[in-house]
Prior knowledge:
The structure holds 2 protein chains of 2 kinds.
Chain A: H1 9-27, H2 29-36, H3 40-62, H4 70-73, H5 75-78, H6 80-113, H7 119-135, H8 138-158, H9 172-175, H10 181-196, H11 214-240, H12 242-247, H13 251-256, H14 269-298, H15 305-321, H16 326-335, H17 337-347, H18 350-358
Chain B: H1 2-22, H2 26-48, H3 55-72
Helix pairs in contact in B: 1-2
Main location (chain A): membrane
Keywords (chain A): Germination, Membrane, Transmembrane, Transmembrane helix, Transport
Membrane topology (chain A): Multi-pass membrane protein
Amino acid sequence: MKQKGSVTGLQLGAMTFIFVFSTTLAFLIGPLVKTASFDGWLCILIGGVAGTAAAVLSLRFALRRPDSNLGQYGSQIVGGPVHMCIMLLTAFFHLHLSAYILREFTDFFVPSFLRQTPPLAVAVLVMSAVVALTQSGISALFRFAQGCFIFIGLFFLLKPLFFVSALDSPMWHEFARVHDWRALWAQSFSIIPWYGELTMLAFIVPHFAAKLKTSKVIWISSMLGTYILIVEFFLIVLFFGPKLAGTLIYPALELTGFVHFGDFLYNLDALIVSIWFMGFFVKLCAVFAVGTLIFSEAMSMPYYQPITAPLAAIVVAFSLVMSRNPEDLASFFSSSWPTFALTVECLTLLYPLVAWARGIKASSLS
Amino acid sequence: MLILIASFAVIGYYQAALHRRLKTGRREKVLAYGVTGLAFVYGTLCHYSPMWVNPNNAIRLVFSPLQSWLLQI
Lengths: 366, 73
């Protein structure tokens, strides 16, 4: 399981950048515009800063022992049974999150591009590719993210240029004040766990290269992802208006339908969805790989490869049974998932807290 | 159900190949096949009674009241 750390700063930054905005962009902006309207950009900013801070706190503790996995020495800090519970719950959270991402993908892709294809077939095919990449190891996943980052980052940095005419709007004045403090709090609360998912990095610290300024890299790339999200939010609200944008299920993807290259190249949806799919795939692989790794560490298994395929089967089963329709799924994810996710993400903070309370130094652990 | 059995047969075969390649011990083999068995049982339950095994019901039961309370603050 142990590998010599080979993940570079650029790879870590690329992964964080893609992680922050790939699924958020497609699935969160619609409900955000509907509930928070013009205050949505503030929710993204507050959620981004708070979520990244929580992730960096747990990561900084894990970085005190850069050669060991938190999953392996954590039992010496909080005790064996508590550690086992935390690990199993965290593994379940990651596998459940993988299932959610997979379900969102099938719900979007099957009616739009793969009509009459059974969702089971799509889910199995996607997870087969995820298993293949996960088998290659965490470092391979980061290298893959670095490759995708160039396409995805460049596209989303250039995208606002296609909507310059929509930016000249009197709606800008509305972004400058807070309309509803309660909606601001509720939506910021919902966004924090999306960024808090970065706590997963605390479980793969030995894969990072030596002398890597991890916290700095994560802050920069997370805020770059936040910038893309906020720009996308502004474009959606300015282009469609807050009422129409609030009724669209995938406003970010609808917006891409209006990207044209001059008068000769129309309907770039397929190309743009392919670019977005790369980001989505990277996130799905990362979440699934970390879930598998944590589960194998909880079971004290030296290799995680033999359990990737059965866990992928569980993820497919989760994704198929977790809701009857997209509305049911959206209702669940707005009513209870943020609290569940925040609770599990904060469990990682127990290690530094208990270590501080018991006066344990990370370097003194065997 | 046939698709489920065929899929898990493939997974079992693939696992056996991985165990040979990684030269894993008896304990790891038991654990890995145990996880596969559990996944098969879960898959079967999902086929016959999907609402019973939906993890979202349990999460909603515990965290939905907590979230409502938190957002009222």
